[in-house]
Amino acid sequence: MTCLDMEGVLFPEIWLGLADKVGLEELRLTTRDISDYDILMKKRLDVLRAHGITIHDIHEVVRGISPLPGVPEFMSWLRQRSQVIILSDTFYEFVQPLMEQLQFPTIFCHTLGINEEGFITDYFLRQKDQKKHAVNALKSLGFRVLAGGDSYNDVSMIQEADAGFFFCPPDAIIQEYPQFPVARTYSEFQALIGRAGGFAS
Question: Which of 7, 89, 93, 150 is catalytic?
């Protein structure tokens, strides 16, 4: 079983796209910058409320997002050799158009509270540190689990996996967690996963 983060690994960051659309630097903070997800989301919701940004604005951004270059080929290669689950701290209310572009892989993520006017009123975590718990649950079912991500919120998933890797992480994360291999391209990522999983090239 291979567990992958979504934003920064398979797709560009949704919140960065929204920041560019509405011109708000405060929305450029991601899990690559802030390790505490609750703090990050509270900051985001405060900014959305203060500037009158709705779910419809976010949907407009999501509709313009495509997989990162090389992702369709990488995912095709991987799904022929391993079951794949995307473990993401995004929200189901965001991701339908993105998953469609990858032929609907399984994704575990969170949900939002949205009022009748389209304003996001709250967020509901499926489980705190869900990525780590998902990997642990898969291991308890007898799966060998590989994991890859790029951010602070991926660290516990990578640590819990039988083999874990970073894909294009910021330098600060590399310095804090030098024990994990780093891929800078999808060919490097594929090679790391292939060796750990014993897959054919």
Answer: 7
Residue 176 is predicted with a pLDDT of 94
Q: What is the pLDDT of residue 201?
A: 62
pLDDT bucket at 86, cuts 50 / 70 / 90: very high
Does 38 participate in catalysis according to the annotation? no
Strand 84-91 to 2-4 pairing:
parallel
- Report the percent of the chain where pLDDT is more than 70: 99
Per DSSP, what are the bridge partners of residue 164?
A: 147
- The catalytic position among 5, 13, 93, 150 is 5
Mean pLDDT, the chain, whole residue set: 93
- Decide if 188 is catalytic: no
Q: Specify the CATH superfamily of domain 2-10+69-87+95-108+127-197.
A: HAD superfamily/HAD-like (3.40.50.1000)
